[in-house]
Amino acid sequence: MVQMSRWKVILLALSLVFGLLFSYANALSPAQREALPGWLPKPTLNLGLDLQGGSYLLLQVDVEAMRQKRISNLSEDARQTLSEARIAVAGIVRDGNGVVITLSNPVQMEPAVTAMRNLLGGGMAVASDRTVTRQGDNRIRYAFTDAAMTAMGPTAVDQSIEVVRRRIDSLGTREPSITRQGAERIVVQAPGESDPTQLERVIGQTAQLTFQMVDVEHSIQEALAGAVPPDAELLMGEDGVTPYLVKRRVIVSGENLVSANVTTDQSNQPAIGFRFDGQGARRFGETTANNIGRPFAIILDGKVISAPRINSAITGGSGIIEGSFTIASASELVNLLNGGSLPAPLSVEERRSVTASLGADAVRAGQLATMIAFAGVLVFMVLSYGGLFGGISVIALLLNGLLIIGAMSMTGATLTLPGIAGLILTLAMAVDANVLIYERMRDEANAGRSPIAAMDAGFNRAMVTIVDANLTTILAALIMFWFGAGPVRGFAWTLSIGVVTSVFTAVLVTQVLLVFWLRLRRPKSLPIAS
Fold it and tell me: What string of DSSP letters covers 469-521?
């Protein structure tokens, strides 16, 4: 027999409170939401790029460039390690995933192998990501493992996503969408950001900051003529004219940077203040103490922005970077440095912008489509099952819409145009459960069963079909959400929420309201019986 369980009434009341509590803010203006007490929840639907307008970028992560850079770093590590061990090196050449080191004196093979294996930790021949192997009497191969080379791709993309997110957050963009597309691509959608070129400029700069010593032992003229020493590199200044010959060894990098801020130099011109972590401060202090009177280069993305002379040891782990900065350029660079450097270069594969007027048109079209869909369902249910049963299904449909908005607002989900399509589809499908229940009641009533028995059979026997039908729908939605991207995920998310709330409201709301009617009126027959 149909039961009016107390927990069902309580659950229905709580769902109504939840829907109102987490959806009411969508009907208020920003000023009205700010004026609300702090203890009240104020989440609202986040409109996607296609509804609010904004910028879209498709970025390609240059994983191969990062791999080549890592292999080049192996060469510098090996050169520095063997130099500190006083082992002469005849040459270092690239070889697949690593480098091959040729020793000048084969007698030094054992100490050379020991020194190289110490780089891996504990004197091992193989680390988790690198190997050291002998090749003949005077050659050593120092290389990344195949697993390490393969893992560099996903790791670079994941790190790039986090760096891009921090940089966009520094612009004040609300709820950006940053997702992976394929193996090495990133999709950035920034609602409300009307200038994709500014977004591209902030995102695309690698912001790799390094401190390296200037090579004063060799002639810059000879380097310009092509005679660059193997342990040095030729870089240009920010003006694109002034050349610098700098040591390849990185003293301190942006990875050791704790914070950066806009400050002024001795001439009261904009400058960038920086502070290193403990390891960076120690290495920077030791280097400056051992090289007083010599210049060092401050390099950003392969360009020397400053090359001051070391007048005394800098042991505090902090200092300033002077250059031709304006307040705006210094602030932008500080945001980049604080956001972290990109592990690999990014290139823009596609860019586009959506104007606010187009977004507003999409919102109006979505609202109109939703109202038409709701009106169609209302007319169908009333004509098919009368004012009482049809009206109860419409009440359940209204609560369903309230719960969908509340759930999406609470979870911070982004509503896109495909999401609106999912919402409309949910409204159209929401009464399926009511139709199954009502048709079962009608069959039972026409078979001569009492109203109570007919209602009981309608709810109990239709539940298996309702669960089966909606389970397949939600599984399909979850598959789309898992494997899809962008608009597909927006559609799948809205559809998933809608399926859950539809089953909940169609069964629970209908049952509670019909039991109230049954106890109040005690009818001899059901109005929907033929």
Answer: HHHHHHHHHHHHHHH--THHHHHHHHHHHHHHHHHHIIIIIHHHHHHHHHHHH
